[in-house]
């Protein structure tokens, strides 16, 4: 019941998208009807020749008439091919436009989903939905619009012609209808079963490939290539097996079974005309028999196309369902409130937050004034990064409020808010482009000189000397960790944010490199409110405020000097790090 409801919803959505291309579809439909007319005309011409001109003593005038009629047949045949091609082009055009609009809608929708969605779904699955699923959906429209629609028109039109030219044969052929239905139903059921399995396995293998490529260093370091290969082979074997079952089903349903029914149809026609000839109970002509046999053959050829194509449609239908499931996920509600030229005051009031059932932040309250620097320290899982995620409005508090310049951020448009902020993350993400594009990120406001100045100001003189148009490899593999972080600093600095967030920005680089880029860090912090998640406590001795977190609660507040005098959790952490160094 639930699947039927779901299928109806998917069908309705597909219809809505199809209606956006109704002009191309209407043109394709008209061209298909003309093509069908030509297909009907051809056998009628040959049947007329057989009945009226094929005889023992053919006269010259009969021969000339035959040539003229064969000319008509040739023209009908050529026009049939022409209009068939034009119809396919029209349907293909509509299918591509529909797929394009759906793919565009899916991508735009994904970019507006809450961050929590990406926490639970592997990136490989997201990529698969945007690319593979939409491509399969395009294939479905191509099959439905081009092959199934034109074949259905042919079947209906040819059967009506059989009823017109030989009503008795048309009625007798209805005997075969239950067989066609049984084959169609069985094929569709089995195809749906195996294609669903295949689709799930492909999603698994895409996620696995994406994960393995991202972590190839770990796999090689622990010599786990064979283990990963075995896991891949297991899933790949499942895909092979289910695809083999689909092939068997299509072979039986789409070819052998329909061929047998077509054979039975031909037998019915021959028996009818044979009985008529022997008994003289009704008029029988060779031309009429040719017409009916030709029409019956074409009918079952087109039924064959419909049945086999419907099996392929089932594959695409599963992808369509996947896409529309994605489109039903609720987007982040876009607030209308805008914030510009902020001062940079930030205040947390009794904030509670949970990713699941258990709170990871509990009664968090603090205030930082414009231009101040505040650092968060604590053990792993204490809630440091979560506070940053809340400031950036990636998540919303379960309880409590967050204010920027006395404005509650839940009432502020996320893009408007983030335009006033900039982030330097622990892992400097570098795009596969040049250094300049990695800094400006497509923003046309910034010139080459702006980029060079930003790099120089944050300590990246060497990168400027090498050239800002230097190509960067995937993941920045031709740059050192320090160079990648300098690009991140310049990316933030060039935008002149009012609020700066440094999320353990130096934890992945060595001490010597960290000293070299301290100029960049200090330049970044000038005249702006700065939030620092600190790993090395030696780097935050001069900040205005330090907040110590433990299991989601604030246990200590102060600056470095006052917390050292307090002789508590912070001092123990600091002393331990100094001993280790």
Automatic annotation (TrEMBL):
GO terms for cellular component: plasma membrane. GO terms for molecular function: ABC-type transporter activity; ATP binding; ATP hydrolysis activity; ATPase-coupled lipid transmembrane transporter activity. InterPro entries: AAA+_ATPase, ABC1_TM_dom, ABC1_TM_sf, ABC_transporter-like_ATP-bd, ABC_transporter-like_CS, P-loop_NTPase, Type_1_exporter. SMART domains: AAA (SM00382). The chain crosses the membrane at residues 25-50, 70-91, 139-161, 167-184, 257-275. It holds the Pfam family ABC_tran. SUPFAM superfamilies: ABC transporter transmembrane region, P-loop containing nucleoside triphosphate hydrolases. Keywords: ATP-binding, Cell membrane, Hydrolase, Membrane, Nucleotide-binding, Transmembrane, Transmembrane helix, Transport. Gene3D superfamilies: ABC transporter type 1, transmembrane domain, P-loop containing nucleotide triphosphate hydrolases. Residues 26-315 form the ABC transmembrane type-1 domain. The keyword Transmembrane applies. Residues 346-576 form the ABC transporter domain. This is Putative multidrug resistance ABC transporter ATP-binding/permease protein YheH. The gene is yheH_2.
């Amino acid at each position: 019941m639930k699947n039927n409801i779901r299928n109806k919803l998917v069908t309705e959505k597909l219809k809505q998208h199809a209606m956006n291309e109704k002009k191309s579809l209407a043109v394709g439909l008209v061209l298909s009807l003309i093509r069908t007319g030509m297909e009907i005309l051809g056998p009628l011409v040959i049947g007329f020749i057989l009945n009226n001109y094929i005889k023992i003593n053919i006269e010259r005038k009969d021969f000339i008439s035959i040539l003229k009629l064969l000319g008509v047949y040739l023209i009908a045949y050529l026009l049939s091919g022409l209009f068939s091609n034009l119809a396919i082009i029209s349907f293909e055009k509509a299918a591509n436009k529909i797929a394009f609009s759906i793919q565009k809608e899916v991508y735009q929708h994904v970019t507006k989903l809450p961050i929590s969605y990406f926490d639970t779904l592997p990136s490989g699955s997201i990529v698969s939905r945007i690319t593979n699923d939409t491509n399969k959906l395009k294939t479905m429209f191509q099959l439905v619009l081009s092959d199934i629609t034109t074949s259905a028109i042919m079947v209906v039109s040819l059967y009506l012609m059989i009823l017109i030219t030989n009503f008795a044969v048309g009625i007798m052929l209805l005997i075969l209808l239950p067989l066609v239905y049984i084959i169609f139903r069985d094929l569709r059921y089995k195809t749906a079963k195996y294609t669903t399995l295949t689709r799930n396995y492909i999603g698994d293998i895409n996620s696995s490939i994406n994960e393995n490529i991202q972590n190839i260093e770990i796999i090689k370091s622990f010599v786990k290539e064979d283990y990963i290969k075995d896991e891949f082979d297991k899933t790949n074997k499942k895909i092979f097996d289910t695809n083999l079952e689909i092939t068997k089903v299509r072979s039986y349903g789409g070819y052998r079974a329909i061929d047998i029914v077509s054979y039975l149809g031909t037998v019915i026609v021959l028996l009818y005309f044979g009985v008529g000839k022997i008994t003289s109970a009704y008029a029988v002509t060779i031309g009429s028999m040719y017409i009916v046999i030709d029409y019956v053959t074409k009918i079952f050829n087109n039924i064959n196309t419909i049945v086999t194509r419907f099996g392929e449609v089932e594959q695409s239908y599963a992808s369509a369902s996947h896409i529309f499931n994605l489109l039903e996920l609720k987007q982040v509600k876009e607030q209308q409130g805008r914030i510009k030229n902020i001062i940079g005051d930030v205040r947390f009031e009794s904030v509670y937050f949970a990713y699941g059932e258990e709170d990871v932040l509990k009664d968090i309250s603090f205030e930082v004034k414009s231009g101040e620097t505040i650092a968060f320290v604590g053990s792993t899982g204490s809630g440091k990064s979560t506070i940053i995620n809340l400031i950036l409005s990636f998540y919303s508090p379960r309880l409590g409020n967050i204010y920027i310049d006395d404005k509650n951020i839940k009432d502020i448009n996320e893009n408007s808010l983030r335009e006033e902020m900039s982030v330097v993350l622990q892992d400097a993400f570098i795009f596969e482009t040049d250094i300049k594009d990695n800094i400006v990120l497509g923003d046309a406001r910034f010139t080459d000189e702006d980029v060079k100045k930003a790099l120089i100001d944050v300590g990246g003189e060497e990168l400027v000397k090498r050239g800002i148009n230097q190509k960067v490899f995937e993941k920045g593999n031709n740059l050192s960790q320090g160079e990648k972080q300098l690009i991140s600093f310049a990316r933030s600095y060039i935008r002149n944010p009012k609020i700066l967030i440094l999320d353990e920005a130096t934890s992945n680089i060595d001490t010597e490199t960290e000293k070299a880029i301290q100029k960049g860090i200090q330049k970044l912090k000038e005249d702006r409110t700065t939030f620092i998640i600190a790993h090395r406590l030696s780097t935050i001795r001069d900040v205005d405020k330090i907040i110590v977190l433990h299991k989601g609660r604030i246990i200590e507040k102060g600056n470095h000097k006052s917390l050292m005098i307090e002789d508590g959790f912070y001092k123990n952490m600091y002393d331990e790090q100094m001993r280790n160094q």
